[in-house]
């Protein structure tokens, strides 16, 4: 296996697709803001982030499948790969039905006007949430295609799929702005339906080229559920904690400060998310490669790769510092309106991105070899302190929406401090055994 060639192809093309992707997202956001206006945009962002929690509750099967399928394909065991895929599909489908039922019950039991701190009609909010939930749970099943491509060392195909999705979203938003009345429901329908279509298309394309591992009910295995879940339960715990740490920010802001503050927060987050996204794209191909190298005991390559990524991280820090100073004028040019964004929000967001990206370097390696127990406990600690800290910084310290991201910073700090130590301890232990 030529790892350098795989890395270059996936990272270079992946980053190219992602740059186009982000350029389209940056073009779409002002259009969507003009279509919905500030309050409705804040509500939509909150609803979208809330419903997309679904993607975190797959019991870790997506990540577990990525690792197990990568191992099976590395060994050219297509029967095993087919069994993992079939088992994952059926398991995810059952989870999606359960989530849909629970979500529908919650929508009818909760006072949504009070939850979102808005005067938008209760019936309209319920309809938008129901439509979004149904479409997202459907996408939840179809999105397994991403794990297939990652495991098959074709991470760039996932980025290409997302590029197609964002292009269609941009076209749809333009159509909405010019030909449709201002309604959250239309946005929900367009966003959800397009995601399903892209998922169907790329799932079909993958199995057209990989007929040996096409899923079937007969290939489902209870034993493989156990096999997947033995690794996936830890991933599931991590994902639940990530819901608390990352997916509750908009809800906390809209509840404590109002939907308009969500808009300000989301715009700054979207700007800095570019850096996180590029980092993830650059490192996604390493997951399958780390697994392959670990299976083949090529520990020298693993260590050298992590050291190189650390060197690149130093350059990354300088880029984020530059982005901090340029953020306000960039946002004004981008959004074409004054949003009164605080310097503290930009500062804490920059710190968050630096800490988050540094942690990802080590999480990718540890996840790829299934060493996630310590990470799980650190995420649990972060989840416990996240919401109380965020509320404290917003209300008691009076930091406004910047207090929410500061709470997130403290919640993930331990991961970036401890996981590098764990990684080098693992590599040192392996080296001592092989000498």
Describe the structure.
The chain is mainly α and 435 residues long. It has one domain (3-434). Helices cover 85% and strands 0% of the residues. It is built from 15 helices and no strands. It has helices spanning 3-51, 61-74, 78-109, 112-116, 122-142, 145-151, 155-179, 184-209, 222-246, 249-256, 259-295, 299-335, 343-368, 373-396, 402-434. Helix 2 packs parallel to helix 6 (145-151), helix 3 crosses helix 9 (222-246) and helix 7 packs antiparallel against helix 8. The longest helix is centred in the first third of the chain and has 49 residues, at 3-51. It is globular. The two termini are 25 Å apart. The mean pLDDT is 86.
What topology emerges from the helices and strands here?
Elements: H1 3-51, H2 61-74, H3 78-109, H4 112-116, H5 122-142, H6 145-151, H7 155-179, H8 184-209, H9 222-246, H10 249-256, H11 259-295, H12 299-335, H13 343-368, H14 373-396, H15 402-434
Helix content: over 70%
User: Judging from the principal axes of the Cα atoms, what is the shape?
Assistant: globular
Class by helix and strand content? mainly alpha
Distance between the termini: 25 Å
Overall tally of domains: 1
Largest sheet: none
Radius of gyration: 22 Å
Share of β-strand residues: under 5%
Mean pLDDT: 86
Order of helices and strands: HHHHHHHHHHHHHHH
Quaternary state of this entry equals single chain
The count of strands amounts to: 0
